[in-house]
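ok new one. same drill as before - structure tokens go in, u give me an amino acid for every spot. 220 of them this time. try not to just spam alanines like last time pls lmao
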């Protein structure tokens, strides 16, 4: 489809473009195949730009390796866009909406590659805090650290404890952890949210944090 922004105006032109994308991607035959190729080309451009922006996370990766990652990300992003086509509400240009999927998936692929040969240990407890240096300066922080260690050990379930330590202490990317655990990003976000709520409640009870307005700490 072609359009003339001088005739339609910018807003109408965007609507025309969006409707054209959606109609062609949902159509049958040559129109659909052409739309798929156009969309894949768009996603390759988005993925390639993001992969190259993050290339410092993949030391030793050559141009061919980066291009393979970009193509793989674009393939995955294409599947996602087509699956979520009904979610597109037209609040932005379709190309802008779809582009973000390519950028996101490229980040996922880079993180996966960076962690491919790294072990995810899933510790059950927080590593001991080094309290040897400058006791006077770190006394308060050490006290809080002990309280946090205790909260992690006693307030969280084993699964919550492993997720919190992997994500927040070991800096394991959430998509990598989801893949290793056979879980999903959303499930891990929910686990992390629930764990943070429990930890905050424990620290409030012990007097290390103020209770949110309107709430009183519960005694254990």
């Amino acid at each position: 489809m072609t359009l003339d922004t001088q005739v339609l105006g910018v807003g109408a032109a965007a609507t025309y473009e969006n409707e054209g994308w959606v109609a062609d991607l949902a159509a049958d035959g040559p129109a659909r195949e052409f739309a798929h190729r156009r969309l894949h080309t768009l996603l390759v451009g988005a993925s390639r730009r993001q992969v190259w922006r993050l290339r410092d996370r993949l030391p030793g990766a050559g141009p061919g390796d980066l291009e393979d990652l970009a193509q793989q990300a674009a393939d995955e992003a294409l599947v996602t866009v087509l699956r979520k086509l009904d979610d597109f509400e037209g609040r932005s240009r379709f190309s802008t909406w779809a582009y973000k999927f390519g950028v996101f998936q490229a980040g996922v692929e880079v993180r996966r590659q960076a962690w491919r040969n790294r072990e995810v240990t899933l510790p059950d407890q927080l590593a001991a805090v080094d309290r040897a240096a400058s006791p006077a300066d770190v006394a308060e922080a050490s006290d809080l650290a002990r309280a946090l260690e205790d909260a992690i050990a006693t307030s969280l379930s084993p699964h919550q404890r492993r997720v919190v330590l992997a994500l927040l202490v070991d800096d394991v990317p959430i998509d990598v952890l989801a893949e290793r655990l056979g879980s999903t990003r959303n499930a891990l976000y929910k686990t992390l949210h629930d764990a943070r709520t429990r930890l905050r409640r424990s620290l409030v009870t012990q007097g290390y944090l103020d209770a949110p307005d309107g709430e009183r700490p519960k005694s254990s």
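The CA atoms of residues 91 and 117 lie 41 Å apart. and btw Residues 118-220 form a domain with the Arc Repressor Mutant, subunit A fold (CATH 1.10.10.10).
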